[in-house]
C-alpha cells in the first residue's frame, strides 16, 4: 500500500504545471470531447509508465542529459510556433475529429510527451525502490489522472467561454518559456 500511495502522491505533485497538463488543456480546447481525451490519457499513461522501467533507463543512457535538454528545448519552441498557426478546427465548432480520431491522437501525443518526463523517471525510480512494478504503475497512473483529468473537463468549460485563439496564444507563450528554460538549463 505504501508503494501505491507514495507513487500516487509523488506523480500527482510532480505533474502540477507540467507540459502534459498543458497538453491536456490544448487537447480539450482543440477537440472539446473530454471522455475520449481522458481515456486516451489513461491508456497512454499505462503504456508509458508500464514501459518506463525498461525504456526510461535506456533512453537516458543513450542520449545523455545534454542532448535530451536540447531536444526537449527545441521541441517546446517548435510547439510554441505551431500553436500560433491557425487550424481549420479553429474556424469551426471544434467537434470534428482528427484523422486518427480524438482518442488515438490523445494516446499518441500524450505517450510521446511523457517520454523522458520527470514523472516517467519517477516511475522508474519508484519501481526500483519498491520492487513492486504493478503497484507503482497503478499509483503513478492514478497520480497522472488526478492531475490531468480535471484539466480536460475544466479546459473544455473554459474554452466555451474563452476564444480558442487566446488559448493558443497563452499556450504558445508557455511552450516558448518552457523551451527557453530547457535550453538554458533551468529546471
Structural commentary:
This protein is mainly alpha-helical. The chain is 83% helix and 0% strand. The protein contains eight helices and no strands. α3 packs across α6. The two termini are 31 Å apart.
Question: In angstroms, what is the radius of gyration?
Answer: 17 Å
**Overall geometry:** globular
Distance between the termini: 31 Å
Total beta strands: 0
Instruction: Compute the number of helices.
Output: 8
**Low-pLDDT runs:** 87-95
Helix content: over 70%
Strand content: under 5%
Q: What string gives the helices and strands in order?
A: HHHHHHHH
Labels describing this entry:
mainly alpha, globular, 8 helices, 83% helix, 0% strand, 187 residues
Chart the SSEs and their pairings.
Layout: H1 2-15, H2 19-31, H3 34-83, H4 88-91, H5 102-114, H6 118-130, H7 133-159, H8 164-184
Helix pairs in contact: 1-6, 1-7, 2-5, 2-7, 2-8, 3-5, 3-6, 3-7, 3-8, 6-7
